[in-house]
Amino acid sequence: MSPDLDIAVVGAGLAGLAAAHELRRAGHEVHVFEAADAPGGRMRSLRRDGYLMDTGAEQISARGYRATWQLLRRAALGPDDVPRIGRPLAVWRDGRPHNGAGDPRAVLTGAGLPPAARLSLARFLDWSGRHRAALDHDHAEDTPLGTATVAELARRYHPGLYERLLQPLSSAFFGWDAERSAAAPLVGLLLAVGPVSCWRVYRGGMDLLARRLADPLDVRYGRAVETVTDHGTHARLTVDGAALTARAVVLALPAPAALRLQDDPAPEAAGYLAASGYRPMYKVSCALDRPLAPRGGNYVLLTPECEEPVLSCVISDHLKCPDRAPAGRGLISLLASPRRIPELAAATEPDAVRLMTEAAERYVPGLRHALVAAHVHDWPEAMPELTPHALTLRGGFLRRPARCVEYAGDWVAARPSSEGAARSGALAASRVLARLAPHTAHAPLQETAA
């Protein structure tokens, strides 16, 4: 029999769109199935009453984002569409924000570190600089850090380095538990993306690239894929109750979601899939009637766990990019501390918003009085948590033979970012193309038993 589809991609986030573009460029007919009503996945943006709210907290860098910049060029987007943020990153300490986190000059300026911790930062920067080539962010499973967690790495240095830098960074940007999460992906990523001065933002919303990539593709929105099975010569998927066959399927989803769709994933993939857990994110976008922000002009204020029990960071979106709020107004995003997310997610939205905005008054005085509207973004599976156990399984996963069902997502790249998604999409496409190369398009399928 002939397949219903040439290639199916499940998920119209950046990983799925990157894979679909590569496969389409190679001459294949690609159908993308997306359960939501718009592309972007965890990089979606919402537009409400002139406010532009990013559901996640993504920025890209002029460094370390090779695959993303390649996609930007293909989508006819240039540096003007991804302007430099040009604002500092701050850490709260002793009742005020300290700018300069993520800047090499933090050894001199402090950037929120206690004086004794600055020597530890100098030691850490010296060690990571000498081992830079070995701290490859594409191969986090094979670095000098081995299977050390973020907390275990931090214990080699002054406690202040952990409390004021490593813990707030890993918590705010990834939602990680430092006692569980592997240090190698974090350190490799920080080295790859460079200082905050290199960081950029998408003009027009963090979904800009996803929207451009989706435009020329056959993306079927509101189509939920329920099951996927690999039959050896082809794959079968159930979409809204209807069974379809395809020569190949790319599951561009968080690992837990990809597992839920498959009754029996290939043994060489199952271990890493099961070990690739995700951390939730709970974020409140606060539309304000004036452009309030923390002191110091920073666009991100990290609030360390030793200082703040409810929030992990405060983002001044209108400072990050002026188009995020109407002229004369403001937009502030509050990210919850990972330890409080279960409680907040279980509460009513009004109660969760009240708790988070009350905590934010300490950092942005007057926020509650200036609040026009609050929008909650609750992601149960927001960011992959790369544990030491997952890293030990990643090498075998990457060496597995190509099959009818392939995977894409930042968890595949062991890099929790849009760059990880873009790289994984290209990898999935290359594996599909390598497998299909000996066969002509739409070759007859031989049915096999389920």
From TrEMBL:
Family annotation (SUPFAM superfamilies): FAD-linked reductases, C-terminal domain, FAD/NAD(P)-binding domain
Amine oxidase domain ranges (all copies): 14-433
Pfam families, sorted: Amino_oxidase (PF01593)
GO molecular function: oxidoreductase activity
PANTHER family tied to this protein: PROTOPORPHYRINOGEN OXIDASE
Protein name: FAD-dependent oxidoreductase
Organism, scientific name: Streptomyces tagetis
